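The protein record quoted in full:
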Amino acid sequence: MNLSTQERKFPNITFHEIAEVLPMMEASEFDSLKKNIAENGLVEPIVIYEGQILDGRNRWLACKEVCVTPHFQDYTGDQPVSYVISKNLERRHLSKSQRAMLAVEFLPLLEEEARRRQLSGLIQNQDTVVEKIPQREMGKAREKAGEIVGASGRYVSDAKKIKSESPELADLILQGDMTVSEAKRQMNRDKKIEQIVENTVAPIEGVAKSMGRFPVIYADPPWRYDFSKSPSRDIENQYPTMTLEEICNLDVASLAHDDSVLFLWATSPKQKEALQVIESWGFEYKTQAVWVKDKMGMGYYFRQQHELLLVATKGNLPTCGSSGRVSSVIHSPRGVHSSKPDIVYEIIEQMYPDYRKVELFARQKTEGWVSWGNEV
């Protein structure tokens, strides 16, 4: 059977597993490569190892698309992994974090390469070699990985942990969208969030079982925001937050008396979500107060200087008498991050002096209250 010109120029060659570890070029880079090859031909040969393409996948595909005849070169060394890494580091502008993650991506292959190279140079009992060589050679491979990519051992170690525990963050590092340090911080935040969920859902039920139910509930949920642009002001830097779903799923119903009132803090961007929480917890929204702070914060439309204290009820808890009613505008200085004015405890006590009270997501213990939260 006669082969076409295309088939003769481009036989069916597969990519070696070592080459497959590296990401392919972005579309814009690949277009530039095609243009260069179309104008100047293929300058750097495609390297073949064990009958497969070891280096030059993008050049091979570009040659096929622009119909330029490629030329090949066999790899004859004994360290193909190190060769591929070094060649790609020469061509690409990679950050320190990308280099460290690249070392981790290639580490299993480097370890296997070191093991095979060691085995090929030894004439010993096979069982003895297999038993004693790998651990020693793997340690050398890890050191070598860092040396090849020009990243410190600590950075490579951190990158390896990220790859193991959060593969999605490892992908972001390889793409250049996140540093190793940023990924470490994100992992720590995620762990805190997991802890807060684990340490809140079950204990809420425990409070109800051990102390009964409460007519007055005061809550300041750790709302999660998705629009923080400044790492220094990121809420996750201050305390672990929860998603709307996680907050809604808390079993507050087990705490609430059949006739009860809920005081719920929310910022203006979270007002809609706060209403969902009220409904999920089995309450009905009634009214709100406004805390006006002495200092302005950040904001997209207005620089925020107030927070909302929503009031919701369940059943038929009597409203407070006229002597307990205060202004719906609370003027109080802003305290440490996310803390609320102490005067609010006094206001609620004045409104409902005779009822048992519980504070959810409490950051401190308050006399006369049951305090529940990961910080107390």
About this structure: DSSP finds 13 helices and ten strands in the chain.
